[in-house]
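S.,

Sequence below, as promised.
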Amino acid sequence: MFDIQEELKKLPDTPGVYIMHDKTDAIIYIGKAKSLRKRVRQYFQPSHDEGIKKRQMVKHIARFEYIITDSELEALVLECNLIKEYTPKYNTMLRDDKTYPYIKVTVAEPFPRVLFSRKLKKDKSRYFGPYSSAGAVKDTIDLINKIYKIRTCNRNLPRDIGKERPCLNYHIHQCDAPCQGYISSMEYRKQIDQVIEFLSGHYEKVIDMLTEKMQKASEDMEFEKAIEYRDLLSSVKQIAQKQKITNTDGEDKDIIAASTDGVDAVVQVFFIRHGKLIGRDHFHVRVGTDENKSDILYNFINQFYSGTPFIPREVMLQEDIEDKEIIEEYLSNKKGNKVHIVIPKKGMKERLVELAYKNARLILTQDKEKIKREEGRTIGAVKELEKLIGIEGLNRMEAYDISNISGFQTVGSMIVYEKGKPKRSDYRKFKLKTITGPDDYASMHEVLTRRFTHGMEELKQIENNEMDAETGSFNRFPDIIMMDGGRGQVNICLQVLDELNLDIPVCGMVKDDNHRTRGLYFNNVEIPIDTHSEGFKLITRIQDEAHRFAIEYHRSLRSKAQIHSILDDIEGIGPTRRKALMKRYMSIDRIKEASVDDLMLTDSMNLKSATAVYEFFHNRKQN
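The prediction came back faster than expected:
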């Protein structure tokens, strides 16, 4: 079960996106954060008010998850991608995709241009971004055009060379006028290559140049120019803040990375669809002997893609794997198109793989802590009980309870705990056959006798190869029986075991006058137990679970008895005729008063069934 308060303690103090789920596991809200720890905690602080809509949303949160990113910008872009993908109920939805700007270089043209764009298109152009500030993008494009003298006109070159006079930009030395043939396409292409290098991340030269000009303008007391250079510098720095969450090639990719501690591993998968990171999933893997990260990835890919309906065009891994070409061929055949497995070593792709690894490492670390706490609650608690009663190897524990109301439909329950955790597949229910009154001891005697008699019969069948061990319901005997009560309940259990010639330890869970557990009863001695210990909490859970299971079964039987109709006791009257009779007559009393001829007028009734109904009620009256 997801413990919100516990999970809040584990939130990292890093940028990222958080995803809120309701009790049906539907995504109801997606948000971004500069610090996941600070932001997500705010939702659950009574003093923090986010407005009526957010307050309403918090009431429905059953669990949350998160994806860490390397920057706030990445969190911003990822948030947008995920909102568009999942359309959560409590998010404000954008009307279209015009959210983040890109810089587009029309490299397919003989004389390319540098343009502002809101959309990615498969038009052979190079796209850079997305970026968080449209203003910064426009300033940067202006700067690029000035520095590298890139044309801004829409003329069709080289077709229109020399047809019109050069524009103003040529006269103010901000364009080399390819429209007049003053620069060759080869020379112009060199300038475009510098633009692409700049947009690919090599900003140092431009930043140094602008910094130098700003300082010189300031020294010359040309403050307006200094401010202009400062603003341009700020725009370039904003563009320089790289993000990896959207990939400009628009392809489908899976990014896979693993983190391991030598015993366990977590494999993180990022799903990129149409160039956007739209989700992720993680998988826990038990590490085999001497398996390294490459082996883990190899085994994971084989298993994961054998069961998934969609295979992307590219799978990106953090390490090379054995038989990569064979795996590529297998995936390609399954997809029907060529699939590439790549191991990026530098650039944006390598940083995206690194981000997947960071998320895997975080989950592994946190889950280790969770498993450690869980082991304290389960295996640790069992160890405490072993120490208290002096028995080792208490793997399987069974507990029983009886439920009835004034002896009505007495039932028994059997629950099973293994390694301190409930094993619900082994739970069993008993409807009492020989006991009619409210006699708990006699009822418990019947339940235990039936349980272990069945078990012994199954074991005999297994020995004679008449039954498979997995098929049986009762052939696994407990290491200890936990009885809800003291001396009386324990003695009943010991009596049954003695009658069946079985030797199984029996321990009573003793309650005080307020019906609260106070200790254990074992070997005719009451053993006190620390009420703050994990062992005590385990005993309480076992008692509550046995009681719950018995009550739940009894309640279901009562419900069935309540909906039983007297018409069900008439031969030849099934659900269809019963429903038709009640629809026509509305009550049992009116059915009693009807004649055979009248009853025959009811849908689906014939002479035989109408006579049966009439005689049933009139014979009852005579009796």
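The chain has five domains: 4-86, 102-240, 259-374, 383-561, 566-622.

Coffee later?
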